[in-house]
Amino acid sequence: MALRLPNHFRAIFAEGAFNSAFIPAYARVRTQDGDAAAGVFADRIFTLLFLTQLALLALALTFTPEVIRLLAPGFVDDPARFDLAVDLTRITFPYLLLITLVTLYGGMLNALNRFAAAASAPILLNLSLIVALSFAAFFPTAGHAAAWGVLGAGVLEVLLLGGAAMRAGVLAQFRRPRLDAAVRRFFRALGPATLGSAGVQIALFADTIIATFLSAGAISALYYADRLNQLPIGVIGIAAGTVLLPEMARRIAGGDEVGARHAQNRAIELALLLSLPCMVAFLMVPDLIMRALFARGAFTTADASAAGQTLAAYALGLIPFVLIRSMTATFLGRGDTATPVKAALTAVAVNVAFKVLLMGTLAQVGLALATSIGAWVNLLLVTALAWRAGYFALDADLRQSLLRLAVATAALAVGLWLAAPVVSVWIDGSVHFRDELRLLVLGLLGAVVYGSAVALLMGRRWLALLRRPGRS
């Protein structure tokens, strides 16, 4: 809970809404008015962002028990869990202020085609958590160690991104806010973007709230499954969208509509090329993945099975989650944050309705399945709206790639289906680390099958997809 709450608000106020509105606005000001005007614009947004996040932090720290009662009502009747959630949340919540500043600097650097620092920032979170948990014996609980690790990561990420921004000459400073034309246009885009991000988080809040009424392991099963599902979403989908958004914003600002559509089509191809094998693995061998990665200590085989079923349900929505950033980029690059919001809120309504329908029979698996259904609704609506507006069209290369990737994906699925029982028998129960070894063998086999199929069907073109999506 303490990890999810600041992440929910981060997705609303920072990475979700803010990036959607800020990166196109900053790129447009730089393209049309020059570097000096862009610096003034960034300073004013930085000042307003810092002050609003500081106020939110003060409210959150003051009313943490009330927030936990609202968002985790299932904890109210368990004083030990409730008090622990309050304590840990008060440690992790300042991470929101820090990561918001990281998002600002990352957006500025992305608009300058500097992606390395922002892409590296999450590594610091992982390292900080690992180091903190290594010293868990010196904290009241392992949860306290992890919470302090999160807060420490926020400090490290601000230093990393702030240093990169300083070297690039775009480090934002405090400046008296002024609602000039650029700032007003930014806030007109930020409003709908915030509403859309909030709508998506409502669905995730529903997961958290409902899961607190389920068995004790439900939240953990959702968390571990979501962590694995987020790997291709973050590494592939968000990465492609992060590069594509400033690219499309610059091309659209310069009147290059053909180049913008070309960049979008190539980003979609790349995202599908890399994410389809992840989807197949999550659907075909989810239990094995969970056992190999987590089944030790207090994480039992039964826990792995529950998390594996949840992962498979999430995997059904992996493709729309990976593609949605690339699809919405055509609207965001034009400063239109309202249209994607309409699709997102419709998807949220469908998502929450299915959560209520499925939670009774499928528990946390039903929550994950509802999330996948909502993701498909979101993607299909955004695609239809973009198509109708003339912002998106499948070019000949993308149409051919879709057919070829479908064949390669089917070959991978059949290969894993045939190989899994053979590998399981071959690596019998007497072998140490048998699940890890089975997963390694299947992973290598899958890579050979999928890679060979892609190379055979697409030839040298698949190598070209690894180039930056914006390049012609």
Brief descriptors of the model:
472 residues; mainly alpha; 18 helices; 82% helix
Q: How would you describe this structure to a colleague?
A:
The protein is globular. The chain contains 18 helices and no strands. It is mainly α and 472 residues long.
Strand content: under 5%
Please tell me what the overall shape is: globular
Biggest sheet record: none
The tally of beta strands, per DSSP, is 0
Distance between the termini: 45 Å
Q: What helical percentage do the residues reach? A: over 70%
Helix vs. strand class: mainly alpha
Low-confidence segments: 468-472
Mean residue pLDDT: 86
Oligomer: single chain
SS element count, helices: 18
Element order, helices and strands? HHHHHHHHHHHHHHHHHH
Q: What is the radius of gyration computed over CA atoms, rounded to a whole number of angstroms?
A: 23 Å
Write the SSE topology.
Blueprint: H1 4-13, H2 17-33, H3 35-62, H4 64-71, H5 79-92, H6 94-111, H7 116-134, H8 142-168, H9 181-211, H10 218-253, H11 257-284, H12 286-294, H13 301-315, H14 318-332, H15 338-389, H16 396-426, H17 434-458, H18 461-464
